[in-house]
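Render this sequence as a predicted structure.
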Amino acid sequence: MAVLSLLGFLAACAAAANGANPHSAAREGLVPSLQVNTSGNTVHFTLQISNTGSTPVPLEFTSGQSFDFAVLQAGREVWRWSADQMFTQALRSETLAPGATRSYEATWSPPAGMRGELTASGVLAASNRRVEQRAIFRLP
């Protein structure tokens, strides 16, 4: 029993050291921002990830997907950018230099008649850094 507890503790420590902790990105200087602009029957999303730290931040990806956007209404997902996308299945890495910012964009056309308050979510799809930003917006 003690061995299993020790193994669990060591696994948790290793996961945190590898960036699996969702709070590790903020400690490393990764700061997200999400802008949502509505115009007519389109919604435009811009996710920016900035490295405000003093050291480069390595980002590891398990596919060609770097980001994702989702829209929720009353807690239910009504759209996901990646749902109709295809991505290469290749490991890759990038480094975000100190002071650098990466921007990711997508556009969504809501179904006719959709109204009210919605929540947008923008996510950096790096396997070693969990970075997400949410924003509330309204469709008139």
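Summary. Helices lie at 2-17, 24-27. The chain has one domain: 22-139.
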